[in-house]
Amino acid sequence: QVQLVESGGGLVQPGGSLRLSCVVSGITFGDYDWSWYRRTPGKEREFVAYITRSGVMTNYGDAVKGRFTVSRDNALNTLYLQMSGLKSEDTGDYYCNTLHFWGKGTRVTVAS
Fold first, then answer.
1. What residues contact residue 82 under an 8 Å CB cut-off, 6+ apart?
2. Are 79 and 19 in contact (CB under 8 A)?
3. Which of 12, 35, 51 is nearest to 101 (CA)?
4. How far apart are CA 44 and CA 54, in angstroms?
5. How many CB atoms sit inside 10 A of residue 36's CB?
6. Distance in angstroms (rounded) separating the CA atoms of residues 25 and 10
7. 105: how many CB neighbours lie within 10 A of its CB?
8. For residues 30 and 74, what is the distance between their CA atoms, to the nearest angstrom?
9. Which of 61, 51, 62, 63 is closest to 88 using CA atoms?
10. Backbone dihedral angles phi then psi of residue 88, each to the nearest 5 degrees
11. CA distance to 1, 74, 80, per residue, from 83 (Å)
């Protein structure tokens, strides 16, 4: 059974930082490219970041480019999202994904 468990969300002030993690089991993590998505209030699901299986190539949504960094540790079966310069519009639920597999998400709230 494939499980994706996101963590690391919470309440942070504008301008602050958080690091999200996604621990994966039941699938060979290193065989796949991985992505982060988010669902923010009043909006459709939005692409956040993407990383190739080797970790060499990454891509980001325009809204987070320059502020977020995606990384992975294939030995730990873990995907990360380092978020800095957080803004109120980054508030939402963040999900990791590959193929048709999704976690349940972790909530990020950016507020003063």
1. 17, 19, 68, 69, 70, 71
2. no
3. 35
4. 29
5. 26
6. 23
7. 20
8. 5
9. 63
10. -60, -35
11. 29, 20, 10
Where do we find the tokens 């949504």?
A: 61
**Burial, 39: exposed, middle or buried (Cβ in 10 Å; 0-12, 13-18, 19+)?**
middle
Residue with tokens 């809204």: 63
Decide: 8 and 18 in contact? Cβ < 8 Å.
Answer: yes
Residue pair 48/68 in contact (Cβ under 8 Å)? The answer is yes
At 43 the pLDDT is 87
β partners of residue 110: 12
Is the pLDDT at 89 greater than 90, yes or no? yes
Q: How many Å is the Cα radius of gyration of the chain?
A: 13
pLDDT digits (tens, 9 = 90+) for 6-49: 999 999 999 999 999 999 999 999 999 999 999 998 888 999 99
Distance from C-alpha of 24 to C-alpha of 17, rounded to nearest angstrom: 23
For residue 79, give the 3-state DSSP assignment. strand
